[in-house]
């Protein structure tokens, strides 16, 4: 398999979606499970509310990962949730060319992730953690930090 | 307080909405809790998916009841869920004039609940349990039972 | 009751929230009902997914309106949905001082609704319909229209 | 590949499901994106509420399309949303035999889409747009238009 | 294909996920459909709230089944819902080694399903129906029945 | 107004529910807003997925607070979200008698919050943060920490 530098446009055919239905794991544990799965290298983890049999409000856990990570993430799911089964299927991921740019604001530097198409920047997302830290340090609304960056990019 | 016969149009000012947020009660128990609350006289019980702090998918339990039923329903919520607090507020309920009509179908009788306005029937709902029993007895789609009734009313 | 000019900061004590649980109205009708309720003057209408008894995925319709509009909106709910009952309770609404400003972009004028506190603009929302029309006329992403305005305000 | 007339029962093996998780695209834009995707030929587009990391309520956009449409729809997703990646996987679609029938009502003609199995009509859906127009023209509840058709089919 | 005894750890490559979007099937029917699909052998059935075009709150029905069951379940979906199309894709299911153990409580026997890894029990789920029956018979909270079992296993 | 010690059973009549509909605040900001509202003293904050006009997936923010906290929380909502209006209504909260007990486990001490009725403990919730820290320190599943406590209480 050819290896792509992570930032160039490419199509990744080595990804899996992994799913588990949970009707007897308390919500309290699920915040913890999400953190553990991210730490272990999941590309994304998210919850969807579902309705299961016998009037049970429940949760569908979905995660995206590289095939090579599956075994490790499976172990976490088995150890940390109540499920006895884990289902998965392959998917393809198209990823835009991307680059990180440092924007100088009046409060300091903020990273902005940019998406490029045909060499042109078509979208820009300020790094949330950078914005959050500035909002907290200067006691200003997070919204104002984002607004300032939108003015500058 | 004046008492209304249950089927006449009236405005009920003696109702409460009761709410509990649940992030550590497993979904499996919640189907059971719903049944218990209906048995004890709740007018309605329903679940809404919510997102609570620390990334917890959780459930908002809401129930509607008469003020006189509150104490009994509160006991069930305290006994059967993990909550330590229960919140509630009064609401007003407008109820249409309603009557039940028996419709004769090729498979037998089905009750239809009708809503009236100014003495005129403006809506008709076949009784779900009657339709379900016929669908199961005659091994026909539930949809076909409803269609037949819509043709007759 | 004192009348406020609509744009000044004020607290409105004449509002109601109206609610209906719907487990036998098809989703297809509900888009239509929403339009009718807005046309008749509802301040807001929105749907929440709920889980009702007997494993029924259902919908909670909520609307906000002035007390004077209640009767008319009630008629629509009774005529257009399958419900036989409508519940409601009063609420208070705090509304910020607001003003509309016209922003001149390279594609034409766009209205921007501004929220003020202590005489200072603290937030600005481009008018969606203005942005949509420009995006469609010039065949540019809606996102780019918003970005341009954020640069200008 | 053999081409099927669109109305005959067939199994389509050329379909894709395309997915994007969105935690920084405002809801306001997503109504617009849905319209653009339908205009460009998506078979279906729908949103699911999800919970992402860091306590973010977010939206999963899913769309169904023919493989040949993927490139065009991908361009719209990249241009109109904030995502940097798009995932997809093939699926198979079984489609019933279907036909359109014109039903004559007291208010005019309404198309009804019928589903057939073994040559027999087993379901019938009135065309929403036809029903909506009649409901608006004659100022009658949409529900009554559907009821009338159910009586006739 | 090699056949596994159902309780040993194994990876099942013969499963399908089947999906239907429903915007004109009333919620009332969907509880019934779920029961029918389970009776006919579906491994799991669950509903997810979705938002479809034209402001329609709708429901995504998903079911998991063995490929051999697909035809029978397809017939139920076509007969009992309003859909004209059914989509599906294969998935792989990893299943833990499991065993059932009978736990003796002060109220009688309760089955507990245990999940094993490397021969060691790493999770235990009391059988819901056993617990429910005891809770109802002895008029004790379901929560207390579970607590008692957690003390014993 | 009589003041209750916080741990005794009491009915609190000084609470408000505050609500905001958000269709143009990105999900990314909402995780931040939740933290700010908790820091400022909200009793609870939670998000519900809703569907608003023009096909917009949106979010209902709800918070519970004492009337005295309303002004401060209102300022945060106005500063950190895009809303121009905030609605609220009073509610009553019943709170069980509660006490905190320290449970000695093989890994160290864990607080358990207990709910009492007529002087008897009827429910017990281990403190999540205590359990999380032990799970991380000893690299054991969170589930096992809870199981151990359930065995001891």
Automatic annotation (TrEMBL), chains A, B, C, D, E, F:
Keyword Lyase: yes
Listed InterPro entries: Ni_insertion (IPR002822)
Record GO terms (molecular function): lyase activity
Gene3D superfamilies documented for this protein: mk0293 like domain, Transcriptional regulatory protein pf0864 domain like
Lineage: Bacteria, Bacillati, Bacillota, Bacilli, Bacillales
Name listed for the protein in its UniProt record: Nickel insertion protein
Top-tier EC class: lyase
EC numbers for this chain: 4.99.1.12
Alphabetical UniProt keywords: Lyase, Nickel
One Pfam family, short name: Ni_insertion
Residue stretches in coiled coil: none
Organism: Gracilibacillus xinjiangensis
